[in-house]
Amino acid sequence: MYNCSLIKFKDITDKYGHLTPIEGKIDIPFEIKRVYYITGVGQGVVRGFHSHRKLHQVLICLNGSVKIRTKNPEDEELTELNDPSVGLYIGPHVWREMFDFTEGSVLLVLASENYSEDDYIRNYDFYLEEAIKIYR
Ligand code: T46
């Protein structure tokens, strides 16, 4: 799907456990400017419902699992994240919804820019209006 893909990271495993290194511009396609994580999401809660204009992000589920629905004017995909050595890259102008967070799940997000509410498109009709020009 356009601007949306899975990234498999190195999983360094030994008898002491697992270690996954992630370096900006090496393991992911941008320099990391911001990190945040989402925890404690209750049953039935759906988050997201927005797109970004410029932001690139990689979502990694460090514990448990979460489903991500990604959409553009032409396509829709469902991804389940349940492996801390796999990230979902989501670039600009991709609509996302996150749901089915399991109890104790931890969703880590690596972002290419500092937080800016101006970069969000939180209305689906406005999103379609902007995105159609890009996807055409
Ligand atoms: C995304 C998905 C995966 C901040 O103050 N700073 C931040 O860095 C972020 C990400 C959010 N906020 C504030 C803005 C809202 O008042 O935290 C509140 C919750 O944010 P939001 O409703 O956007 O959260 P989600 O879970 O719907 O979406 C977030 C990211 O915003 C978004 O970029 O792709 O996680």
Describe the structure.
The protein is mainly β. The chain has one domain: Jelly Rolls (Sandwich), CATH 2.60.120. Helices cover 9% and strands 46% of the residues. It is built from one helix and twelve strands, in the order ββββββββββββα. The strands form three sheets. It has a five-stranded antiparallel β-sheet, with no helix packed on it. Strands 8-7-10-5-12 form a five-stranded antiparallel β-sheet. Strand 2 and strand 3 form a beta hairpin. The longest helix has 12 residues. The model has no long low-confidence stretch (mean pLDDT 97). The structure holds dTDP-4-keto-6-deoxyglucose (T46). This is TDP-4-oxo-6-deoxy-alpha-D-glucose-3, 4-oxoisomerase. One of its GO terms (molecular function) is isomerase activity. InterPro entries: QdtA_cupin_dom, RmlC-like_jellyroll, RmlC_Cupin_sf.
List the defining traits of the structure above.
136 residues; mainly beta; Jelly Rolls; five-stranded antiparallel β-sheet; 1 helix; 12 strands; binds dTDP-4-keto-6-deoxyglucose
Gist of the model:
With 136 residues, this protein is mostly beta strands.
